[in-house]
Design goal:
The structure is a single chain. This protein has 439 residues and is mostly helical. It has a single domain, classed as Orthogonal Bundle (Cytochrome-c3 Hydrogenase, chain B). 46% of the residues lie in helices and 11% in strands. It has helices spanning 2-17, 95-99, 107-111, 119-134, 140-169, 173-193, 215-238, 241-247, 255-260, 266-269, 302-326, 344-349, 351-362, 403-408, 411-415, 420-430, 434-438; strands spanning 55-59, 71-77, 80-87, 202-203, 206-207, 370-378, 381-389, 395-401. A 3-stranded antiparallel sheet has the order 1-2-3. A 3-stranded antiparallel sheet has the order 6-7-8. Helix 5 (140-169) packs antiparallel against helix 11 (302-326), helix 5 (140-169) packs antiparallel against helix 16 (420-430) and helix 11 (302-326) packs parallel to helix 16 (420-430). The chain is globular, with a radius of gyration of 24 Å. The model is unreliable at 32-38 (pLDDT under 50).
Length: 439
């Protein structure tokens, strides 16, 4: 009787936890295809069984080192990973479908929350796509403000990577140091936009406001602090023998594999491919007017991905300093009454201005029918926005090319043949943002 109850309970639990077609099946030694020869097991204080069969274990979705609600199904032969299957969707919020229910004026509040570590890039790519459909050109000052904020955002995102990457591998001090400099960048964001994250500051037609008085001194101070921190990180980690042992030759991916999987950003550049959309002649931001280097290496391992992001902070600081020197004067948004709300003071003085403001933010502005795809280089790679307009004030179709989603496809390639202990370092080196993956 007891066995029947246990059997029924086992069947019930198996049904409730079944992943269907994406379930990773165990396989017997010497068999390439999944089968019933392996073992799934849960050990509770027992002696490790003597067996030549492989095992399937779950890493995540609650594991802190998967950087969010990422679940990995790993097939292990002892401590060696034979196969890996990323399972996503635990943070799915339907942001693209939500974006089709919001007006173009409201869309920035939605897209800024996708890759929450680089919100300015999300806002920029959405605004640029809408502007392309509208056929408007934003003023030079607005484009430079966007570039300034995006590069500072790249710095804060890479600082977050260095902090968590260090802590994942055991350099706990890096978490404190990386957070220290990132805090200064976020403090500047708060001074400019009123918020530390999810700003909705970059709008269709320009930006929500101009830069505050004294911003030049604030940016220069932030750059000086970040550069001091970078020298500290470099001295702490780059030649550290433990760090080298944990990262060099670990999680290797080739250029051919990366391109076949659609991988972009620092991961692709670590394989020797110097692809950076900031160097593209079609870049919506004025990167052609500033001097910087595209950092790339050849080995495609965890160490190279760390070195690229560390060096990109230095290049971003270089761009930000040039923004301070070359920031043009003029309007921070296009003076088009169909897109741009009236000045705040004007609303207090004119009923027409009040009605204009009310209709712009309740009904939105109509965008000519058409479709477009625009992309920018986010800290994680190519971030693209595909918009289809049917001539109304809301997108008919919106799709975001999230770099974290494509980069995550490289995990099975990187983890194949690695040790379980190395899986944490490899996942961290991908730098996935699960809000960006699941959207």
């Amino acid at each position: 009787m007891t066995r029947d109850v246990e059997a029924r309970e086992g069947e019930r639990l198996e049904h409730l936890t079944d992943e269907g077609a994406q379930e990773m099946r165990v396989r017997a030694p010497g068999h390439d295809a999944p089968g019933d020869g392996g073992t799934e097991m849960v050990l509770t204080g027992q002696q490790w069984p003597e067996t030549e069969e492989t095992m399937i274990v779950n890493m995540g979705p609650q594991h802190p080192s998967t950087h969010g609600v990422l679940r990995l199904m790993l097939e292990l032969d002892g401590e060696t990973i034979l196969r890996c299957k990323p399972i996503i969707g635990y943070l799915h919020t339907g942001m693209e479908k939500t974006g089709e229910e919001l007006t173009y004026a409201q869309g920035g509040t939605n897209v800024t929350r996708m890759d929450y570590a680089s919100p300015f890039h999300n806002e920029t790519v959405f605004a640029v796509a809408a502007e392309h459909l509208l056929g408007i050109e934003v003023p030079p000052r607005a484009r430079w403000i966007r570039m300034l904020l995006c590069e500072l955002n790249r710095i804060s995102s890479h600082l977050l990577f260095l902090a968590t990457n260090g802590m994942d591998i055991g350099a706990v001090s890096m978490m404190i140091y990386g957070w220290r400099e990132r805090e200064e960048v976020l403090r500047f964001f708060e001074a400019v936009t009123g918020l530390r994250m999810n700003h909705n500051f970059i709008r269709v037609g320009g930006t929500a406001a101009d830069l505050p008085d004294g911003w030049e001194d604030d940016v220069t101070r932030v750059c000086d602090l970040v550069m001091d921190g970078v020298f500290d990180y470099d001295g702490l980690l780059t030649e550290n023998p433990i760090w080298i042992e944990r990262t060099v030759g670990v999680g290797v991916i080739t250029a051919e594999e990366a391109k076949a999987l659609g991988v972009t950003g620092p991961i692709l550049r670590s394989t020797g491919v110097p692809r950076d959309l900031r160097r593209s002649p079609d870049s919506p931001l004025p990167y052609g007017e500033v001097d910087f280097d595209v950092i790339y290496t050849q080995n495609g391992d965890c160490f190279d991905r760390y070195r690229i992001r560390l060096s990109e902070i230095v290049e971003s600081v270089k761009i930000v300093r040039q923004c301070v020197e070359k920031m043009p004067l003029g309007d921070y948004r296009v003076q088009d009454l169909k897109v741009t709300p009236p000045p705040r003071k004007r609303i207090d003085e004119s009923m027409e201005a009040l009605i204009h403001h009310f209709k712009l933010f309740t009904e939105g502005f109509k965008v000519p029918a058409g479709e477009t795809y625009q992309a920018v280089e986010s800290p994680r790679g190519e971030l693209g926005c595909y918009l289809v307009s049917d001539g109304t004030s809301r997108p008919c179709r919106m799709h975001v090319r999230a770099p974290s989603f494509y980069n995550l496809q490289a995990l099975p390639t990187m983890l194949r043949g690695a040790l379980v202990a190395d899986s944490v370092a490899i996942i961290s080196s991908v730098d996935p943002i699960m809000g960006d993956v699941d959207r």
